[in-house]
Amino acid sequence: MVAVAALTEDTAAGAPLAIRGxxxxxxxxxxxxxxxxxxxxxxxxxxxxxxxxxxxxxxxTLLRLVAGLEPPRAGRILFDxxxxxxxxxxxxxxxxxxxxxxxxxxxxxxxxxxxxxxLLRSQRHxxxxxxxxxxxxxxxxxxxxxxxxxxxxxxxxxxxxxxDPQLLILDEPLGKLDSLTRLTMQSELVSLxxxxxxxxxxxxxxVEEALLLAxxxxxxxxxxxxxxxxxxNDLPYPRHRGDPRLAELRHEVLSLLGLDATW
Amino acid sequence: xxxxxxxxxxxxxxxxxxxRAPSFARVAAAGLAWLGAGALTYLLPEQGDWPxxxxxxxxxxxxxxxxxxxxxxxxxxxxxxxxxxxxxxRLVAVAVLLTVWQLVTAKYEILPMPFFPPPQAILEVFLDxxxxxxxxxxxxxxxxxxxxxxxxxxxxxxxxxxxxxRAAAYWVHPVLRFVGxxxxxxxxxxxxxxxPSSWSASxxxxxxxxxxxxxxLTWSGVAxxxxxxxxxxxxxxxxxxxxxxxxxxxxxxxxxxxxxxxGMGASFAVLVVAEMLGVKAGLGWYLQWAQGWAAYANxxxxxxVMALAASGxxxxxxxxxxxxxxxxxxLVRW
Lengths: 263, 334
Fold this sequence. Notes:
Chain A is of the alpha/beta class. Chain A is built from ten helices and ten strands.
């Protein structure tokens, strides 16, 4: 990772997120399928919160609601004190698939946010800064299909970060990467978060990843998801995988998920 | 340029000029084949009286000499050399075919005569009737260009709007489903009395033939865009205008081009039929006129011109696609 001093200057401080009694359901051919049940969660500005839960429990749905891509059926979501009524570039999502636009170069992909808001002409330099931030500065003119999985996900991160989001919503962003790339990217995510100061909301299946990155781990139940427990993790960054305290927390979280028998 | 050669033919490049000798032999063989075709055409006695036999034989010989000259030039121009090396077997085949054609028509009259003219008769048409033929090309070209551009633009806009808006799809989709499968030529009789001129009627028909496939394919392209592309753009602050122009349209472009290719094929068919039946100009009309006068050489000449024009236009469209969809290289079989 290349450190860019200039970028720390325009750091947008994170903003608080409040989820108040949010419930949601899907209509599967007329029958309602409840996915979220009365979720209450407060995320402080600049906090890194991880959502852990069994597969298919509705974690990603919660992220879509926070992003404003869908309205919740019940409850309210407040971001920086104002209700979330739709998507906004201050709350950017990074999905499990990088979903880069194949017809745009890496540079073109990263500029999408600025272009969509008519800021590209005046702030083009931010594109290069974002690429440098994720270590892709040599790949500006390359098309997405020429990138490896890790590089593509870095490009997706740059595309999100170029907008200086106050909240970065991470929907299993490292889920499809090979395990080595994944370990590298976990450290990179932490250093990006520390440098930029955004609030981060991460969904992951990986208990170790949640504990390594987040200052608080929220454990969700099976569908419909409710908050089962919260585990605070005040270990200082950078954290080390071999830390015995991390192992204890991991045991605790696994038992909350009903998987402590594997310990 | 040189690097391409290296990639394609490493062995030949490494062996240096020694490896170019066989390629010159191939080109020389092609040149000799054309010279031979010219000699046979000139020397063998003819059954009928064909005024342009000598000119045609001279043309064949000139091509043969040009090939040999190009082969010599190819020793210093590697790119030319490569092209000649690749196409020389085909050039030999063409010379053989032209000779066979010559033998079964002018020389021995194995094929029935007015229907199968020798190549020199077609050369005669090109040399003597070129004003009329040229005017026909001009007319067809204008008609096709106007109709095709109008049809492609209208089809594209229709496809994008029904792919994007449910309301537009509700109203337009049934029309497309009902009218779309109708061959554009079926509209011909109505078009010729509804429109003020045969030219505008034909433009309409060509546009119709082009527009339907373009509309359907654009629509399916827009409808099949990965919804995550929209989600991403929306969270990055994109408004509907951006979603349509910068997400939906570029993502649908590969489909749009399939529609443009299909539309081009359909437009050729409609153009020729329209010119045969109503318009008093163009290559279709020329064909009809030649048939009326039993001028079979003129028909073949017109067919050759049509084939060249049509494949030229398709090539042009391929070039355009290669430019606009260069990003697809490496994603799909190109």
